[in-house]
# Entry
Amino acid sequence: MKVLVACEESQAVTIELRKLGHEAYSCDIEECSGGHPEWHLREDVVPLLDKEWDMIIAFPPCTYISNAGARHLYPKGVLNEDRLKLGMEGKEFFMKFYNAKCDKIVIENPLPSKIYGLPQHSQVIQPWQFGHPFKKRTQLWIKGMKQLEPTEIVEISENTKIPGNWFNKGGKERQKNRSKTFPGIAKAMAMQWAGEVE
# Structure
């Protein structure tokens, strides 16, 4: 399958798809951190949506449409028009994936703010369903494919000092770290939605 993994600098899903024999490409305006620049399209993803893909898996930025940022919409009870405009632009970008001409589409995002009126999601997943002891409610909008099935349910850890815990790391890279796909989820996406090439 020829797969576009949009807005993915980490290449987590792209690498798993490549392991299974698929022609997968990550795309982001940033350089990739997954170690495979030969599979990375560093460009605006929108023109690529007009090309032929067997599957599109998208991780559009959630900064302005996420419910977590909703408090910034009404600072001191007054609507922040600039923030609303950025959120509407975020929704427009999200909808480009949702309406792309491809039979198989998945979009991943956290819970969006109701004010933007995004379509109803198909599924909610958590890292602890895929071998990672963390909570991070993630929603999936799925077209033309089945819902993701849990692969390894584990207990949630309240201890954030787990070795290799990039997810809860603070500092300047916190937002980027929290947007990366957990390896267990990436593997499940590749295996369950694409499968191994025979």
